[in-house]
Structure formats: C-alpha cells, structure tokens
Amino acid sequence: MSPRSPHRARQVAAVHLLEVAATALVLVAVGQAVGGRLEGFVLGPGWYWAMGVGGGVAAVAAGAAMGMSGRHARAEEAALHPRVLDVLYRRSLSAPPAPDEGDRVVILAGDNAERVSEYRQVFRPDMIAALTTPVLVCLGILIGLDWLTGLVLLVMCPLIPTLIKGFLKLFRKRSSESRRERARLTARYLDAISNLVLIRMLGAGQRVEDDLRQQGEANRGTIMKLLAGNQVVIIVVDGLFSLLFIVMSAGMAMTRWQNGHITASSAITIVLLSVLLLEPLHQVAAVFYIGMGGKASEKAISRWFDEAPQTAASRGSVTSTGDGSGAMMLRDVTVCYGDSQILHGVDLVIPHGSRTAIVGRSGAGKSTLLGVMTGTLPPHCGQVVVDGLDAEMAEAGAIRGASASVNQRTWLFAGTIADNLAVANPHATAEQMWEALRRADIADDVASMPRELNSDVGEQGCLLSGGQAQRISLARAFLSGRKILLLDEPTSHVDMDSEQRIIDAISRIGDDTTVVMVTHRRRLLDLARDVYRVTDGTLVPVGADGVTGEDLDRVESEDRV
C-alpha cells in the first residue's frame, strides 16, 4: 500500500459523508414542509433554501467523490506496478526465476493491481461511508426527532454488516475458485501468445485453441456461479431488509405520532430519513465482486512483497574497498542452485585494462560466473569486488552499474534504435549514439535505414538480423561509458560477417577498458591475454596454449543465425 493510500481513501469517504449530510438536510426540509402543510403552519424561507443548497451540495459531492475515487484508484494502480516489478528484479538477483514467475507477475501487476486499487480507493471509502451513514442517521433521529424510534433503529443497524459478513464466508470458496480459473486462463493465454511460432511449426494450433476454449468455459462457469449467488443474496437482502427497515421506521413513526409523542413533521421526516438506512445494502453487489476479489488480490500482492529478498542497502552501503586490487576480484566464491554447487572456491583477480577469456564445456558454469561478476547473481559465500565496490556491502545497483554486458542473445525493447541505446545512457546525444554505433561497426547499417536512429526494431528486435541486434547491444555497452565490459559468447548466434565485425570492434577497445569474455571461439580467444577454464566448479588458469578441443567444441559446427 502506498503511504498516501489511506489518506486518499479517507478523503473520498469524507466527501461521501458530506453527500449524505446534504441529502439528509434535503429530506429533513421536505419532511418539515409536508408536515407543516398537515399541521397548518407555513415554513420560513430558510427551509426552502436548505432544500436547494442541500440538493446542490449533494450533487456536487457525489460527482466529486466519483471523480476522486477514479483518480485515486489509477494513482494507486500506477504506484503498485513498479513495486511489483521491483520485487521481481530483487528476486532475480538472489535466485533463478520459477517457471511460472512471469505469469504470476503479469497477473499481479495487471488484474490484481487493478482490483486492489478499486478495492482500496473505490470500494473501501464507499463501504466506510455506507456503514457510517445509518449510525449517524439513527443518532440524528434519536437526538432531534424521537429517541425511541432512533434507539430501536440504531440497535438494528449491526444486522446488515453481520449478514453481509456471513454471506462473505458462505461464498468465499466460490470466489476463490473463480480467481483460480481466471489465473489459469491468463497463464495459458500468455503461454500460447509467447509460443505462436512453435505452435504453428508443430501443427498444434487446433489443440491449443480447444484447450483455451475449455479453460475459457471453465472460467465463465465459475463467474456465472459467483454472479448467481450474488444475485440471490441481493434479492434476499434487499427484499428483507429494505422492507424491514422501511416498514419498521414507518410503523413506529405512525404509532408515535398517533400517541402524541411526536409531530406529523417528525413522523414524515423519520420515514424519509429511513431511506438512508439502506446505504449498506447498496454495497452488497460490490462486496461480492469488488470486495472479495480486491481483498484476495491484496493478500496475493502482500505475499509477493513479503517474498522480496533483503537488499544490500539494508545492510549499509560502502562506496569503495580502496584496496586497489584491480578491476575485479573474486575470493573463495561459491554459487549454488538448489542443492547443487555450480561454483566453489573460485579465486580470480582481473587487472584494469586486461583482456580475459573464460572457457569450458557447455554447462560448466561460465555464464554463472559472469552473472556473479555483473552483480545479478549474488554468491552464497565468498567476496566479490567490482571496480573497488564490495558486493556484500554496496548496493546491488552500484555493482551492476560498474560494468556493461553483452549476452549470447541480446534483448531489444520494442521501440526505436535510439530508445534501445538510451537504456544505457538516457542523456546521450545523437552524436554520442552515432559514435557508439561506429565503434560497434553498425553505423552504416543504421544510416541506410529510412529513419536512421528512429527506426523501429520491432518486438524483441524482430525487424533486425541477429548480427545487427548483437552489434546494437555492443554499441549500447559502449555508450554506457563503463570501463568494465563483460561479454557472454557475443558471437555465438550471429553470421560469419557479423562475427568478424564484432571481433574487430572488440579488438579496437582501448587499454582503459577491462574486457572479460566467455567464449568458444578461437578468434575471440586470440584477443585475450589471460585465459581461464571453468571445470568441476573451479576456475583454473590455462593460458591461450592450454585451450583444448573440448573448450572449442562449438567453434565452427554451431548453427548460425
């Protein structure tokens, strides 16, 4: 919950109560006017002014409450999105993502965030005002009109929320089933969308369509059951309690008037005010759709926030170790996935301005080691120092910001080339972008495009070749201005021409930049001054002459993109 969320909800509830107070003023004035006619006296002009002003205030307050609740709900939802994603990023730093984590985040940041915002900023203020209104009205009747009628109605007021709470318990299971079916449908739909190409290649389109149709029907069925129960409750509660409150208030008012305890004006006013006692009943439908769904979504998001790992910032931040040990130092580093040790006892010192290559068979832990260096994978034990920053003490963002990385398969966001370059340096000028593109040997390709820097790259870079996308990723690393460059097999999924261009671009990097490469390519190895092999979870220096055929088993036989 955002810090301002309760304050905003109270604001909307206060405006709702202002609307109720103005409406009550109008009803009292009308009751006095009608009663005055029956009793033979004429009201002063003040009562008619009260009708007009009260009606105007009630209308303005109703519109204001509706507008405020809508704006506050959107603001609440917008505040939840980055918090949900922040937990995802922090979780990714401490452990690999779960298979269903993407689907879970989409549901949390989408449907759940919307339901929570509606629950907190629309339903909750309305319910606060609705439950407060009967109490205030009964107190007004008790003090200003007839103490006995007011007292009896006040005693009956708790019956409505008690009944609503009972129905909530009765239909909680049905509401949970509806949420589960909706989550399953969302997950399967997202899975189908993200694998459209594979589904077509395997000819599984009809099967997936049938599966989605069945899941959609299951979701529809649970929603209809929930709505059917909702309608039954609305009919019962509205019919029973509306009749009970209206008949009781009217009967008591009539009896008290006939016995001479109150005037006709007071009796009519009590009957008119009894309409406001039904405010909680107007929220019954919202209780089942917004209230139950919003409460469950709030619990789901709260559980997600509780799962967020502790950040390094909570332990304190240190700017530098000041030991001058080099661009990067790993000391007795161990990394585990579950019960398996991927790396253990790794020691490595990489001097400033060096060229270091890391080799090893596939699955040996090379990319894991690079993840430790980038700060995206904290080790289970050991010390990691990047550009003088101790990963145990410094903020995770500072460690990640000390280096730039280029992965095997680059990630480009839907947008323009300039947008993707600006990710590394939001304040970069067009000339700086062109210079980075020239360093990555992609400037001519971009210049030949009709919109140059403003050319769209498509979803996941689909409008570019694999080689172009990888060189743009390299240009993005250059544009960041960081002096540590981490390359995870940058030429493994590109054509021969792009591979040579990437190798040439790396060879031109100055001695002021430290380069660490994970590779199976002999031509990239030729650029390295130091070579290490990852084997059996340890790191062994081998030198360029010690590289074996197993280290290069993917060199020329690997499929090209």
UniProtKB/TrEMBL annotation:
<dbReference type="InterPro" id="IPR017871">
    <property type="entry name" value="ABC_transporter-like_CS"/>
</dbReference>
<feature type="domain" description="ABC transporter">
    <location>
        <begin position="328"/>
        <end position="561"/>
    </location>
</feature>
<protein>
    <submittedName>
        <fullName>ABC transporter ATP-binding protein</fullName>
    </submittedName>
</protein>
<feature type="transmembrane region" description="Helical">
    <location>
        <begin position="46"/>
        <end position="66"/>
    </location>
</feature>
<dbReference type="GO" id="GO:0140359">
    <property type="term" value="F:ABC-type transporter activity"/>
</dbReference>
<dbReference type="InterPro" id="IPR003439">
    <property type="entry name" value="ABC_transporter-like_ATP-bd"/>
</dbReference>
<dbReference type="InterPro" id="IPR036640">
    <property type="entry name" value="ABC1_TM_sf"/>
</dbReference>
<keyword id="KW-0472">Membrane</keyword>
<keyword id="KW-1133">Transmembrane helix</keyword>
<keyword id="KW-0547">Nucleotide-binding</keyword>
<dbReference type="Pfam" id="PF00664">
    <property type="entry name" value="ABC_membrane"/>
</dbReference>
<feature type="transmembrane region" description="Helical">
    <location>
        <begin position="127"/>
        <end position="145"/>
    </location>
</feature>
<dbReference type="GO" id="GO:0005524">
    <property type="term" value="F:ATP binding"/>
</dbReference>
<feature type="transmembrane region" description="Helical">
    <location>
        <begin position="151"/>
        <end position="168"/>
    </location>
</feature>
<dbReference type="GO" id="GO:0016887">
    <property type="term" value="F:ATP hydrolysis activity"/>
</dbReference>
<feature type="domain" description="ABC transmembrane type-1">
    <location>
        <begin position="135"/>
        <end position="293"/>
    </location>
</feature>
<dbReference type="GO" id="GO:0005886">
    <property type="term" value="C:plasma membrane"/>
</dbReference>
<dbReference type="InterPro" id="IPR011527">
    <property type="entry name" value="ABC1_TM_dom"/>
</dbReference>
<feature type="transmembrane region" description="Helical">
    <location>
        <begin position="228"/>
        <end position="248"/>
    </location>
</feature>
<dbReference type="InterPro" id="IPR003593">
    <property type="entry name" value="AAA+_ATPase"/>
</dbReference>
<dbReference type="GO" id="GO:0034040">
    <property type="term" value="F:ATPase-coupled lipid transmembrane transporter activity"/>
</dbReference>
<keyword id="KW-0067">ATP-binding</keyword>
<dbReference type="InterPro" id="IPR027417">
    <property type="entry name" value="P-loop_NTPase"/>
</dbReference>
<keyword id="KW-0812">Transmembrane</keyword>
<dbReference type="InterPro" id="IPR039421">
    <property type="entry name" value="Type_1_exporter"/>
</dbReference>
<dbReference type="Pfam" id="PF00005">
    <property type="entry name" value="ABC_tran"/>
</dbReference>
<feature type="transmembrane region" description="Helical">
    <location>
        <begin position="12"/>
        <end position="34"/>
    </location>
</feature>
